[in-house]
Design brief:
By secondary structure, the protein is an alpha+beta fold. Helix content is 40%, strand content 17%. It has eleven helices and eleven strands. It has a five-stranded mixed beta sheet with strand order 7-9-8-10-11. It has a four-stranded antiparallel beta sheet with strand order 1-2-3-4. Strand 10 and strand 11 form a beta hairpin. Helix 7 runs antiparallel to helix 8. It is globular and about 55 Å long. The protein starts with a helix and ends with a helix. About 9% of the residues have low confidence.
């Protein structure tokens, strides 16, 4: 099921897709099922828990989440599919709304004391806050960080979390741990992204593994992975002016117009 949630790999009949769309158009968004019904559905899906499931406005179709990744399953547990569920009446993307909320909930469980934060000199100048999953050896992460003063000058507060793409027990992983274990983490992160060796030794405990697992739960495919204040996931580097425009739209989606 994990692979299903990460990339679409299960093909379902076109008739089922059409049935979902048609039912969604005709069914009010307050479809309710009993806990016994949810338990029955969970029992039919290997590894599923009741807390992973919730009903959708489409009778017989359930949302199945792992972390902030969402798929849909049929009540009999035989079929599953990826994709976003829209309320056709007002074009609301129900999947994206919940996905964003899940990302924010996961991030809220991590204290800022576990992050490396770069912010405007005067905190009152902060207009936006982004959470950036970063790899010290990632080319575009380094490019983003080389412009950190520009982001801060434009009112963007940057909260860094570690996401060494090569995984545990690799050079990038050890560098991330050394950044955390340095007396000045801001300086250490900058030095590491310039390719300079760090004098600090790996210490324990450190939050690198927790942040790495959090990135996977959120559905990160690469770095930099940027989560906005609304829970949107921007998959990659944006130069400072483009970032500001993206964050303006994120803060005021109505003004940005329909997607």
């Amino acid at each position: 099921m994990k692979r299903l949630l990460h990339r679409p790999r299960i093909v379902i009949a076109l008739g089922l897709c059409l049935a979902v769309v048609a039912a969604l158009a005709a069914t009010p968004p307050d479809f309710i099922v009993s806990s016994a019904q949810l338990s029955a559905v969970a029992a039919r899906i290997s590894g599923a828990k009741v807390s992973d499931l919730r009903p959708t406005p489409v009778p017989g179709i359930y949302e199945y989440k792992q972390g902030a990744q969402i798929a849909y399953v049929t009540e009999d547990g035989r079929f599953a599919f990826n994709g976003d569920l829209y309320l056709l009446a007002d074009k609301t993307d129900l999947t994206d709304s919940h996905r964003r909320a899940l990302r924010l909930s996961l991030l809220a469980a991590l204290p800022e004391s576990s992050m490396v934060i770069f912010e405007p000199k005067d905190p009152k100048d902060t207009k936006y806050t982004i959470t950036v999953f970063t790899d010290v050896d990632c080319q575009y992460c380094r490019l983003l960080h080389s412009q950190i003063a520009d982001y801060n000058r434009l009112g963007v507060r940057v909260r860094y979390l570690s996401f060494p793409r090569t995984g545990p027990n690799t050079e990038s992983w050890f560098k991330a741990e050394k950044v955390w274990c340095s007396a000045d983490r801001q300086v250490a992160l900058t030095e590491a992204k310039l390719g300079r060796p760090l004098a600090a030794r790996v210490c324990s405990p450190n939050p690198v593994n927790q942040e790495y697992e959090l990135g996977k739960a959120i559905g990160l495919d690469g770095t930099p992975g940027i989560v906005t204040e609304s829970g949107d996931l921007l998959p990659g580097y944006l130069p400072p002016p483009a970032m500001i425009e993206e964050l303006k739209a994120d803060a005021n989606p109505a003004a940005a117009g329909p997607s």
